[in-house]
Amino acid sequence: MTTAWDEIHPPPLDLIRDCVHCGFCLPTCPSYAVFEDEMDSPRGRILLMRIGHEEGEEISPEMVTHFDRCLGCMACVTACPSGVQYDKLIERTRPQLERSDARSWRERAYRKAIFALFTHPGRLRALVPGSKLAPRLAPLAPSARLRSLLALAPPASPLAAVRQLPRVKATKAPVRRGTVAFMQGCIQRVFFGDVNAATVRVLSAEGWEVHSPRAPRCCGALQLHSGHEEEALGLAKATIAAYERFDAIVANVAGCGSAMKDYGHLLSDDAEWAERAAAFSAKVVDVHELLAAHEPQAVRHPLRLRAAYHDACHLAHAQKVRAQPRELLRAIPGLELLEPAEWELCCGSAGIYNLLQPEAAEQLGARKAENLRATGAEAIAAANPGCALQIGRHLDLPIYHPMTLLDLSLRGATP
User: Fold this and answer.
1) Average pLDDT of the chain, as a whole number
2) What span, in angstroms and rounded, lies between the C-alpha atoms of 348 and 98?
3) Distance between CA atoms of 282 and 59, rounded to whole angstroms?
4) What is the rounded CA–CA span in Å between residue 392 and residue 379?
5) For residue 1, what pLDDT band results from cuts at 50, 70 and 90?
6) Which residues are within 8 A (CB) of 64 and not within 5 positions of it... i.e. 6 or more apart?
7) Would you tell me how many other CB atoms lie within 10 Å of the CB of residue 163?
């Protein structure tokens, strides 16, 4: 029987049938909020997945449009009372689109160029000298996509071109808690290297010896969440091979942590890698999870700041890590933590979504910024580089990773 889906992991019908089309997902879906189209809601896309299983169906331009408009934020997974695993469904659908002939060569080339740049730290370092100029050139760009790409460029310090973490950071804490490996990330290690350095200092202060391997260059999260499965799986295997010897693998980027925790599922039918992937994923932990699970031993100094906490989607929805970052921030003396409205709604970053769907991302970014501004905060705490870039484009407030704020508190410094 010929259907729209090929035989390589089509979206499973048993998971599709779990959806009872109740509509609880609609208020939390960012693409539905922007496009106001039933097919741009989770239940609408699930209907398209079901249609794709019917005999004689093909991947239509309509299907591609509506699947591409999904941010993959997983807010619907959090909201669903029936436990629909939309994350697993969209994860199996996107590679189907990429293996088909549904995209033009221009679209394929653009996506390939994004991955050829943003997942290669060495290439990103070469762009550091021009990063401050890029936003000024954005208004002159001939397309919305190029304007978005230039406008999102972070104004990196010249040190970002050469800064590297120590391969091993020992601990002098009274209680030694073990050895962990730290995933540096690709974009994170170049443009947010200060956050990585702060993270390592915090872990060391709390009793962990921190190893920071420099390879592989990327965990495959951006490719995985965009349907480029072959490249993503290759990077996943390289990451497993490099990190599996450690007792725990720590991530401070929401998307990286979410992807690595999913390796066991992604490689479940690979005879050579299934067992290793499952064991690896079981050891992946977000840095907030790790720290919140232990009594603090480093002294927190006061940090007088009113900060609003932004939930990164792949942390709050995909990893279910919501309480721990708040707990760590509230433990900083003098810090007042504020909660914005519509916490569950994506800011529009969503991996490379703001580079592929810039108009929709613009609306979501402005909406998120307004909700954060309304709290009266002096600063924003956000645990994902994409979120920081997206929100920073719309909001004139400093944005800090929670590890940066905690590191400042431990050192008795000020922002």
Assistant:
1) 95
2) 22
3) 36
4) 11
5) confident
6) 97, 102, 103
7) 17
